[in-house]
Design goal:
This protein is of the alpha/beta class. It has 9 helices and 13 strands. The chain has a domain of about 170 residues: NAD(P)-binding Rossmann-like Domain (Rossmann fold, 3-Layer(aba) Sandwich), CATH 3.40.50.720. Helix content is about 35%, strand content about 20%. The strands form 4 sheets. Strands 3-2-1-4-7-8-11 form a 7-stranded parallel beta sheet, sandwiched between helices. A hairpin with a 2-residue loop joins strand 5 and strand 6. It is globular, with a radius of gyration of 19 Å. This is NAD(P)H-binding protein. InterPro entries: ComplexI_NDUFA9_subunit, NAD(P)-bd_dom, NAD(P)-bd_dom_sf. GO terms for molecular function: protein-containing complex binding.
């Protein structure tokens, strides 16, 4: 029996993973500072209790107890910012690795982002630091890097289009992926065992921002002028070069247009 501990079960990805493990009838436990409410999982069967134990990754409180009898840990917890002079991501990953070394866990799976090794952005640097800590730990691991989830792209476009005129860097590239496909891949990795490598997973299409926003406006039934803005700075140039996209595509993922149709209805 493969028992799984999910660290970071309340986020978008964590919710999808919980739903997947429940569907597959896998024995799992979520670890967080506060008990998760059933209604915090939009995709989870609301009549099903979510197994939980208290874990504080910042202090390490509760980790040794949570790891008892666990075979696989899904490290999905993530947040921007720092604790003192270190990235939050670095601190919590180091604390988790320390506890894992004292446990009988056989596999650590870490959720990362495509392009963290190329793009100079503070949150990406934090994710890369966490990756390196895991690789250097000599623990059995697999790192799964994914491209941006549909809902994140959706929210970003909503902010860019919040004014009467939209200002869009049309040449930026993106590869939106369905969060359910990433959750399914993570589940598969729990069954295959540690790979000791980094795996990339992207959506089925690489689209420029101009195409993304055009389809977004059509399904949202929004009509307003769009002013193209130039690609400035190293971050935008990295996105324009497609450094956060990858050749490895999840063809079981919804396309961007299918996501929009499902969320906002027909055109």
């Amino acid at each position: 029996m493969n028992k799984i501990l999910i660290i970071g079960g309340s986020g978008v990805l964590g919710s999808a993973v919980v739903h997947t493990l429940q569907t597959e009838r896998i024995d799992f436990l979520t670890g967080s500072r506060n008990q998760l409410k059933k209604d915090s999982y939009s995709t989870v069967n609301q009549s099903t209790e979510i197994p939980w134990t208290r874990v504080d990754l910042v202090t390490g409180e509760g980790l040794p107890k949570a790891l008892i009898g666990v075979d696989t840990v899904l490290h999905l917890a993530s947040a921007p910012g720092k604790i003192g002079h270190e990235f939050f991501e670095t601190v919590i990953t180091r604390n988790l690795l320390s506890a894992l070394k004292q446990s009988t866990v056989k596999h650590l799976i870490y959720s990362s982002i495509v392009g963290v090794d190329k793009i100079q952005y503070s949150y990406y640097r934090a994710k890369r630091e966490a990756e390196l800590l895991i690789q250097e730990s000599q623990l059995p691991y697999t790192i799964l890097r994914a491209t941006q989830f549909h809902d994140l792209v959706d929210a970003a476009l909503g902010k860019l289009m919040s004014l009467p005129i939209g200002f869009i860097p049309k040449k930026l590239l993106d590869q939106p992926i369905d969060v359910g496909s990433v959750a399914q891949k993570l589940y598969q990795l729990t069954q295959t065992g540690p790979q000791q490598t980094i795996i990339n997973l992207g959506g089925p299409q690489v689209l420029d921002a101009g195409t993304l926003v055009k389809q977004w406006m059509r399904y949202r039934k929004i009509s307003k002028p769009i002013i193209p803005i130039p690609i400035l700075g190293s971050l935008m140039k990295s996105f324009a070069r497609g450094e956060h996209t990858c050749p490895e595509k999840a063809f079981d993922s919804k396309t961007w247009e299918t996501y929009l149709a499902d969320r906002y209805g027909s055109r």
